[in-house]
Amino acid sequence: MKKELLLYGFALLVACSAQSCSSSSSEPETPVVAEQEPEDSSRILVFSKTSGYYHESIPDGIAAIQKLGREHNVMVDTTKNAAYFNPDSLQNYKAVVFLSTTMDVLDTVQQAAFEKYIQAGGGFAGIHAAADTEYDWPWYNKLVGAYFLSHPKQQNATVRVKDKNHPSTSHLPDDWELFDELYNYKDINPEVNVLATLDESTYEGGENGENHPIVWYHDYDGGRAFYTGLGHTKESYSDSLFLPHIWGGITYAMGEKE
């Protein structure tokens, strides 16, 4: 599999040389393929393309997920090249992580390929601005679970953990106090299973009221989807509670059991 992915990455590089592959960030366009692949390992893809706001914490998030992958014997490929969203590529991954993607990141052909990937049992894990992505794609709205509406200034707040029977929340305290950029949401999918909510009485600028979901999961269209609205800051990706939180969500998306 490693050889096939490396050859595919080279093909994408050639394709990019023949068309515009510009980006607003300094991250490399060509997919970065994990170097080692033990026989019993799984593989995930971290996708971080942005067409809107670029989060400076994205490189920190990539590095953190790569480290978590090494610790759990999971190969982590990373890219912001949407051309990777095709059946030949996606079939290699147990889950795809949208790491603070923003606005339109996939064309209609790539969207169709991703839908088929999920329908075939694939997994999705969305982190933070994954909800600020693909506003004109109703299927994605239901997959990610909600769209970004607004956010107040970054500040301290309390997350109320409602369900610990999930690998993303099993280690968390009932009341998780943190500093982050706290999203308000619209078009919330009522079928998601909410794991944690924001207590709007503990900070300023909340707009979702007493039921303000911030972490959730659900089975969707044949696959699995997890989302956390946390993870705006660079500091998140060295936090001892946040790292197992996102890895637990990725584990669920992969269909693995802890």
From TrEMBL:
SUPFAM superfamilies reported in the protein's UniProt record: Class I glutamine amidotransferase-like
- What range does the record give for the signal peptide? 1-20
Q: Could you confirm whether the keyword Signal appears in this record?
A: yes
Q: Which UniProt keywords apply?
A: Signal
The record ties this protein, via InterPro entries, to: Class_I_gatase-like (IPR029062), ThuA-like (IPR029010)
Q: Name one Pfam family in it.
A: ThuA
Domain (ThuA-like) ranges? 43-253
| The protein, known as | ThuA-like domain-containing protein
